[in-house]
Amino acid sequence: MKKTASRDEPVVPDYVYYWEKRKDPKTLAEIKGFFASKKIETLKRRMCDMGRRMWERQFTDGNGGNLTIRVGENLVLCTPTLISKGFMTPEDICLVDMEGVQLAGSRKRTSEVMTHLAIMKRQPKARACCHAHPPHATAFAIANLRPPTCIIPEAEIFLGEIGMAPYDTPGCPNTAKIVGAVAVDHQCVLMLNHGVITWGKDVEDVYWKMENVDSYCRTLWIASSLGKPLETVPAPKVRELIGIRKALGMDDNRENLPDDKLCDNSYFKPGNK
Question: Which of 107, 124, 133, 149 sits a CA distance of 20 to 30 A from 217?
Fold first, then answer.
């Protein structure tokens, strides 16, 4: 009898960086070796790839936007200041501690890393962050208009309810405090008069969420111009989507809301003055 060929079990790629507790490098030599290690070099290249995607999608212009990956209890990779995200190389990436002190890298770290660190300190599931200025989502932030919920399944699953953070000067301590507090319960936050920040399990995940939110806001803008009320997914079906979101490891603070509150988009009246 002919033997059936064995087949590997299909998998979903896992790009999460896992570190050992209380094993962060301490000495200068240890930090230097860690920063040049194969695993960290792989993450640096991935950050450059995500930066290029951000630039190609016009989510950033000039030297805008930044990326971070947490790689230890007290260690975070981050993009440098004053560099186009479309043309970074692994040699440009920085290493900081959770207080923002730069530990390695030849280029100066971005001042906005403090906002990323504020999120990571408050939300243990935040292992990476992406900040950018995607035009359609940033337009909602400028208009101080929260995108409605219960419209598109993918947005419910991968974004959940989008948070809104009041404006303060980019890079200042109060901005970090404000955005960090909002991001505890929201994986995507519109920063009023500024842009968008997302957090998630790895750097590709947070870039995807940036794509998700800009596409969602663009679709909402187009649909709102058609002269018809926006249709919503029924609340019981939205609960199914929240269940899928949770099964993927993402929390949702709306799960205990009553049906009449879960999909309440009464505030969303585009074009009204």
Answer: 124
Comparing CA positions, the residue from 153, 53, 73 lying closest to residue 117 is: 73
Domain that holds residue 231: 28-262
Residues forming the active site = 112
Q: Is residue 101 one of the residues assigned to a domain?
A: yes
Per the structure, the count of domains in the chain is 1
Residue 13 included in any domain: no
- 11 lies in some domain: no
CATH code for the domain of 197 = 3.40.225.10
The per-residue pLDDT string of the chain (273 residues; one tens digit each, 9 = 90 and over) reads 555 566 788 988 889 999 999 999 999 999 999 999 999 999 999 999 999 999 999 999 999 999 999 999 999 999 999 999 999 999 999 999 999 999 999 999 999 999 999 999 999 999 999 999 999 999 999 999 999 999 999 999 999 999 999 999 999 999 999 999 999 999 999 999 999 999 999 999 999 999 999 999 999 999 999 989 899 999 999 999 999 999 999 999 998 999 989 999 988 887 654
